[in-house]
Sequence to fold (61 residues):
Amino acid sequence: MTHRQRESVAKYLYDASKIVLATTVVGNLVARDRFDMLVFLTGAVLAAVCFKSAYLMEEEL
Fold:
């Protein structure tokens, strides 16, 4: 990958991590029945993986 491509993918992964985390948090807060811990933890882990991947990709630049 070129420098610019890595930069673009890193930005995309940062955005993806924010969207996943926001969706799981807001989705659980808006849910009428109950707070679903499995959905929350899955979203948090996926957001962390996206963030860490973006961080490592930027580190190589």
Notes: Residues 3-59 form one domain. Helices lie at 3-30, 37-59.
